[in-house]
Amino acid sequence: MLGINWAEALILGAVGAIIVAYLYLRLVKWGPRPERALDHIRNHALWTGIIAWALSSVAAANRAGIMPAPQSAGPSIPRVADVPNPWDTIPFTALIGPVVAVLVVHLLGQLSWPAPKSPKRVAVLQYRRVRDFIEPALGWTVLGVFLLSAGAVAYLAFAPGHPVRLVGSPTEGTWHDPLDGRVPGWTLATALGAALAILAAGTFAVMGLIASRRSLEALDSVQNKTLRTVGMNRLLRVSATMASGFAAIAGNYLVQPAPDSTATSSVNWLALTNLAVLASMLFWKPPFIEDVASPAASGPPAGHGPGRGVLSNTGLDAARLADSTIAAVVPAAVVGGFAGALLMTWLGWMGPAVVATVFILLTYAGLEVLLRRNYATPGLPHKHLSKSIPWPLYAALIIAAAGLAIALNQVWRARTEGLGTSAGWNGTGGPATFFDIPLLCALVVAAAGALAAWQVLRRPALGKDWPALDGALRRRALFRIARTVASGWFTVLGAVVMVLPYEADPNPLAPQPNLAALGAVCIALAALMLVFPVRTVSPADFLPESAETSAGLDG
Amino acid sequence: MEAHITIDLEAATPPFEQVLSQISALVAVGELPPGTRLPTVRGLAGDLGVAAGTVARAYRELEMAGVVTTHRRQGTVVAATRQGQPPAGATRPPEVLAAVEHLVAEGRRAGLDDGTLLALLQGRLRQLGK
User: What is the ipTM for the molecules in this complex?
Assistant: First the structure.
């Protein structure tokens, strides 16, 4: 007899309530009032995203491929575990169902836009391509998430299975707990691969539909384009979250210990990545469909720069791109951490930290290139930046650099004068690496920071109407780069200080330096530097040039 | 700048002819330069709320007139030169464009809508053609 799964019933109930509420709002509350058409369109786009998101959970399949072991011995517990059919451990409905549900919701969301009703019909003679409506940073991030998930599934295919271990006493005086078994990896990889392929193909098909579906007659061409971008944004975000969810399921399977394993704990890095992707996608805002009558939509004042439909939203869009930096930086840091983990043989734990830092800096450089290509005015020089970085950040950079110089000098002395007993960095490569590797890491961080800062400084101005905003965005970018470089240097400093060889004072009463604590302080400073708050863009940054002077005088 | 077309379903002119004439006009005045990729038949039909066959017929006639060409991969694009005619730039002498501007300005001043202006011009062209 089937029991009721209350957690699933609760989720399904909540989803049902959301759908009923939406249908009530759509069919009863939101009447056909032309003056509120834009609100209805915004609401429709939002609710399509909410309903798809509510249906997107693949958590019910998180133990796919794992064979549960009986938890205690007793008369009803068999002495020998049954070996089930591997396919019976795969909950296909829980894997494929959410994919189909999300795609169908987005499909219906696009197909249910109203057809033109007026006898006079207007159309823009422009060929619409899918890529015209994808925000570049989001598109690349989603592609990265899909590739990461595909890689995890491919790796999973080669993982061996192992049987359930029953509770028992293999030898006199020893005892082991029951341990779940797992089916051969290719079985789960086939199921996850199929779900991922359906998700990718379906997402691409719905993207094609978003680009090609009819335009709405209640919106102008700019608003229609924004609406398509909103649709792409919501679809890509939920698809990326589901794709990383499949990787998390693969990770859950992979961390399942083997019967002869002595490991007492394990970390599902793919599940942590899934959480990072979930958080990034949750906060990755879609663009806002501006009202034609609003000042933001009408762009700069008449006679100053291009009008609506050409570059009018340059400033706002550039500011939005700069504000959404975190959504690209977090996945980059996660990917960098994984890439750095591959270098741990040579770099120790500095590997993930430093490579993640370099990836963050390269992401800042990439975003600056994006800003230059999409929003800057070619050839337009920018104003000289005054106080581009606040003094506390300069101080942090100087302290980190000076600390590194002192620590590396001490390491050099240890190497040449034979102080301490260090055998080399991370125990490999001989004493030379104890100096070379941290120096190399510090220089790589500095080089990545210099590259990113160069991109910021060489970018032409956004436009002659946005001098304050251009300066603010440039300062914010330099601030982020400087704090990341400082964080990277503090990380390297902490790593060096923790293993720094020194001559202990033979006098037991003399104060001995606690280098481990000092190294931990450096690591804590590195973490704090990464979240050193950057100032937000204020309305004053959007003032035209003439008003900038007076605003500056006022404040 | 984006090129628009407008069709009026209540007008006496069939929708396919409205699409045909407006695209021809946009190509003639250079608003759709050679090589411009036009929307797909289904896309344009969806935006205008007409049957796909209506737009397909207009595209077919435009292709027969040498205004557009259809490629398997690129879709429908504005032709580089019209068959049997000099390049598009040579068909638009400044004085003709000025006369068109003058016609439009005078029509607006007289309160005539676009449809009436077009009908007047087409009527006069037919008279001259006889």
Answer: 0.73
